[in-house]
Amino acid sequence: MELSVKGIVRRFGQVVALGGVDLDVAEGEFLTILGPSGSGKTTLLKTVAGFEIPDEGRVLLGGEDVTLAPPRRRDVGMVFQNYALFPHMSVAQNVAFPLEMRRRPREEIARRVAEALRLVELEGYGERLPRQLSGGQQQRVALARAIVFGPRLLLLDEPFGALDRKLREALQLEVRRLQRRLRLTTLFITHDQEEALIMSDRIAVMDKGRIEQVGPPGDLYARPATRFVADFLGESNLLDGAARNRSASIPGFGAVPLPAGQPDGPVTLLLRPEALRVAADAAAMPCRGQGRVVETVFLGQSAKLRLALDGGGEVLARLSLRPSDPPPAREGETVAIGFAPEDLHVVPRG
Ligand SMILES: Nc1ncnc2c1ncn2[C@@H]1O[C@H](COP(=O)(O)OP(=O)(O)OP(=O)(O)O)[C@@H](O)[C@H]1O
């Protein structure tokens, strides 16, 4: 493993910011830490960077224990939300800074700075000052500065947070391409689940100083290990029912079949909104109920329907639409709702 975090505990007085975190990041991997505000993401990143010393646990980089090593000894490149470029230095001087610190020869600095600026598509911007650049360009300079010295690990803490949506999407893809091309081992922090799904090889979902689950985006989305992960990553219907003899009775839908090995007792089932069908499309589905359309939201390529179930409770359906499709249902209308049992996922814990 390029980066291994083992049993990290960090307390601030009564607050347990990190409550025993284990994490491995492979060489060339893009791993995202996703979690709500206050879950401990930044504290974890700072511990890896060397700005925080943990109360317990170890940080290994390339097999070497760096838990107590100062940041400059760790060979880690970093980009934060708020640019943090040196305002009085030109773009080229900003990018050259890590190489100057390492006392690299002048020709090497010139060559590497030019190459880094080319990689972030800012050739010809070397003489400008940061304030003469847009927010997105400044973040690209910060990225060039973070990679110019060939770091062993790249740390990104909400680097697109201050940018508008269009620019953020463009930079997300740009960073991803660059990261793949250079095979940079990357630890990325965000609270934006969509961003995590787009960027990552794997996602680690954090809550209250702990990692709830780690896995590829598709796995976490389809098979969340906890209620928190199911809820935090994507939109979800969490249906509480009672399991008995490989089926569960769910209010509004009656008995639905469960996978083998499911013990009897209370069970929480995840049903993603896109698994639901309504009105005529529901007829062919093995599991069916009925509900009243409480709200419809048109989203262009899809529509979102909030439905009040006959048995009490609500579910959210997401229906994909073709341009020629009529509206799927009107508010106030009562419609059939259906789904296939293989789209149910039993949420294991919590
Ligand atoms: N220096 C500090 N002193 C006291 N408490 C701290 C300190 N740094 C972090 N904390 C607390 O530790 C917890 C985790 O904070 P952290 O900044 O790591 O969360 P986060 O997930 O990065 O949040 P955000 O997304 O809002 O940045 C919070 O409860 C925070 O208030």
Describe the structure.
The protein has about 350 residues and is of the alpha+beta class. The protein has two domains: about 5-225, Rossmann fold; about 235-345, Beta Barrel (OB fold (Dihydrolipoamide Acetyltransferase, E2P)). Helices cover about 25% and strands about 35% of the residues. It has helices spanning about 40-50, 90-100, 105-120, 135-145, 165-180, 195-200, 215-220, 225-230; strands at about 5-10, 15-25, 30-35, 55-60, 65, 75-80, 155, 185-190, 200-205, 210-215, 235-245, 245-250, 255, 265-270, 275-280, 285-300, 300-310, 315-320, 335-340, 345. The strands form four sheets. Strands 6-7-8-3-9-10 form a six-stranded mixed β-sheet, with helices on both faces. β11 and β12 (about 245-250) form a beta hairpin. The longest helix has 18 residues, at about 165-180. It is elongated, with a radius of gyration of 24 Å. The model has no long low-confidence stretch (mean pLDDT about 90). Bound molecules: adenosine-5'-triphosphate. Adenosine-5'-triphosphate (ATP) binds near residues 12, 17, 40 and 43.
